[in-house]
Amino acid sequence: MWQLIHPAAGLLHTTITTSASNKAGTAVSFKKTWGFDPLACWCANTQESLSMLLRPGNAGSNTVADRIAVLSDALRQIPGSSGAKILVRVDGAGTTHDLLAHLEALNTARRTVRYLVGWTITENDEAAIGKLPEKAWLVPAARGWLRHVGGHVEVGAAFAIVEASVPAPTQHHVLVRNRQFLVFGGLRTLIGGAAKGTPVPGMRPGDTLYGPAVGEVVVAPHDSPLRPGDLATHLFGWREYALVPVAECTVIDPALPDPVAQLSSGSAAYGAPTRVAAVRKGDVVLITGAAGGVGSLAGQVARLLGAARVIGTTGSPRKAERLVSELGSDAALTAGSWREVRNTRDSQAA
Length: 350
Description:
The chain is of the alpha+beta class. Helices cover 24% and strands 25% of the residues.
């Protein structure tokens, strides 16, 4: 259940409260009255006041520090699991980049924070919006654009969403309706054409994207081990229906609590050191891209297999530190560290 933090008159901002001019803490407000401009936060689910900050009448409407302080106090008032999902309402006065960045940063593995921002649209606003050119509604997406048209999203130069007929089943294929698929980082390299000699095919303009997927078998040949209703994995993601060769479709073990676990990086991280490299006790193992989804697991698997030393490569000192402190690597190399070693050797040779 979402907990809605909802103020009486705009996010964390109440109406000016007037008072005598000689009262402590008061000041003249933008409405030319004398008094306070308090910030407060309520929980809409229970109608309770969660926090309040008494401010002078001349306090700023967009003072981020005040809003963050009141919001932080309010969140501490929400008990236990009730704070797992939070919806915060923000009106125009609170719509600042710093406050929205703070709201985004509140998301953790145990808490999801969403927010509503803006204000009531007036006739003048609608007239101004109507004068904006069509390109104003374009949002960059990779190397192309996303455009909202009639409630749908069109993708421009980089990608295209295409509607096609459901492929007809054949004797050696199964028809699968995908449920989930994996957006894996390596796809970007394959699209860019930088990958050479990889075990998976590269991508050319016009190709359909692919990737690991979990789906339900709709139609299968009579002599196939697959039956309609089976959940299976394959590499034809990024589409609603896929026509998959029988040999490239694997039935999911029903003992798994959640089939989507088949899309994790764990299988590659386990298969590489056990079946491909066959790591043995006492080996020294070098893992490239060791801070990524596969590499971070592969290093730990290699350690469990008895590797005497695990060395990882990564792109930044911050990731290198995490490899050693948290992920079990004995040492980590970055691009900078390689250059330092090379320069040192060149100097010694000279």
